[in-house]
Amino acid sequence: MPVVSRGCWRFLFGILLAGCWIPATLQAGTFEVESRRDLAVMKRKILAAQFLSRATFGPTIETIEALAERMGQIGTRRACEEWIDRQMDLPPSLHRPLIIDMVSRDGFTTTQDNAYIQRYRYHAWWHNALAGEDQLRQRVAWALSQILVTSEDGAGFNDRNPGHHSGQGRWIGPSSYYDLMVRHAFGNYRELLEDVTYHPVMGVYLSHMRNRKTDVAANRFPDENYAREIMQLFTIGLYELRMDGLLKVDGDGNLIPTYDNETIKEFAKIFTGLAFKPHPNATGTGRFYWGNDLEAPMEMFDFEHEPGTKTLLGGQVVGSDEIVDGEADIDAALDNLMAHDNVAPFIARRLIQRLVKSNPSRAYIYRVARTFNDNGQGVKGDLGAVVKAVLLDPELWRGQRLLSRRDPYRVEVVVRGTDFSSLSEPVIRYTRLLRGLHATSSHSSGRMMLMPMDYSWSQEPYRSPTVFNFYLPDYQPPGDLLGYTPPRRVPNGFLAAPEFQIKTPVTSNRLAARYIWDISSQRSQQRWSNNSAGYSHNSDLYFDLEMEKAWCTEDEDMHRLMDHLDLVFCYGSMPEDYQEAVVQKIASRTAWMKNNATWRPDMEDQRAESAIIATVLTPFAAITD
Question: Model pTM greater than 0.85?
C-alpha cells in the first residue's frame, strides 16, 4: 500500500466511491430482518424517518426509533399527530434573547466595534436549528422566512450602533424579524402578515419605511415596492388560482391577473405614513424622521398617510375623504388580501414545497388550502392547522412504496418517480448531517456556534439575494426533461425544481469538499479570530461515531452500518446494490490495515468515515422521496 496521508487517503477514497456504482432501476433500499414481526417494525422506522426528515432539521436514530415505537402502539397517523401536538406545546426558542446571552457570555456587547459581533446572528440560528427542542417550530419558521423574505442587505442591518429603544446593536433587527416567524409558526397568517407589515426590517427592506403621501407639486408619489410584493409574493400571486392550484383562464384561454398597476398604486397609498418608533425626545413632525430602532414596530403618522379613499381587490373601497386613519386603512387592506380566494392555494403550495416536495398534487394542495380557509372551527389562516394538514397528508409518504418480502424476510423500498421527490436545500442537508452524527459543541456553553456558511453553497439564513428567496418556486433547470411527461395530478402540467437554481458545479464541489473535510476530521471546525482586539474563539462541533465504528470491525457487519446510514440520511432510498458496492469497496481497500500495526488502530475510523461520505454525497441523501 502506498504511503498516503490520512486526510488525503480519505479524500481519494471518497472520490473512488463516487464512481463505483451505476443505477439500474428505481429499486431503492432493502432492509433484511429476522422475522415477520420485524417487517412491520422496519416499515415503521422508514415511515418515521421520512416524516422527521420533513418536520425537523434532521432526524437522529433515537428520534426515528422513538416515533416508530409509538407508531406501533397507536398507529402511524396518530403517532405523528401526537408528535406534532407535543412540539406545538413547547415554548419557542427565540433568537434575539439567545444572541444577547451568547454575546454577554463571551464577554462582548452587541454594540462592540472591534470584533465581528454580527456573527452571533448566525450562531443563534444554527444553535436553534441544531439543538432546539422545538424542532417543528424552527423548521416551519425557516419555511416562512423563505416566503416572507428579507435579508441582511438593508440599511443598518449590520449597524453596531444602538437602537433608540432596544439599546442593542441595530444588527439584531433581522433576528427580531426572524423571531416573528418563530412566534407565529403555529399562529394565524393574518396576524403574522400584520406584524410583518409593521416590522421596521421589512419596512426598510421593501421601502415602505417613511413612505410619504402624494405631493404632485414635488412630483412625489407613494413607493410601490411593498404594495407589489405583499400581493405577488406574500398572499395571492400573479394569476388567479383554483383551490387545487390550477390556473384559471378566461373565455379566450388566457390567464387572469390577480391585480394590475392601478391596484398596486392603490395599495401603495395604504402603506404610507409608517416610520420608525420615534426617539423619546422627538417632537412634532420631527417624530416622523427621528428614529432608528430596527426592533420596535413602526408607528403610523397620519399626517404623512395618503388621505381619501383607496380601491382595493374586488373593487372594495377603504379610507375616507374626511378622516385620515392609516392604521384602519392597513387593517382593511390586510383583510382585503386575506379574503381573496388565491391566498389559501398560494400559501398551501409554498409551505408544501418548503416542507415536503417540489410538486404537490392538485389534491394535496386542495386539502391543505381547504384547511387554510377553515381549520374546522371557522377560522381562516390557522397555521397550526395548516402545518398539520401538510405533514399528516398521505402524500407525504407516497414517494416510496414499502414491500414486505420473505426468504429472507426483508422490506424493499421502491421510489415512485420524479414528481414525488425534491432536492433538499443545502442548509437542510447540512443540518441533517450534523444532527444525524450527534454533533456536540466544544464551546464552553455547549452551544452550536457556527460561522456563516454561504460560501460553501450559496445559501445562508438572513442572506437571501433578493425578495424572491434563494430560488424561485417555479424554477426549472434548463433543458428538456427527456422520457418523462408530467402527470395530470400535478397542477398545470408543470414540474418545478426550485433548489436546483442554486445547485451549480461550484456549489456542488464546495458542499462535497465541506462534507469530506468535516467527516474525515470527525468534526466541523468553527474557529474565528480578530487580531486587532486579540479575540480568538473555538466552537468546533465534534461527531459521535462510536455506533458507526462498532459495525466496522468485521466486514459482514458493515451491511448493518449501511442500513443505519440509509435510514438516518436517505430514509430508505439507498439501493441495495449500491450499498453492496460500498461495502465491498471499503472492505477490500482496508483489508491490509488489519495486520498493519501502524494503521490497524485507524481501520474503524477509516471505514466509518468512508461509508458516511459514500452515503451523504449521493443523490439518495440529496433527494427526498
Answer: yes
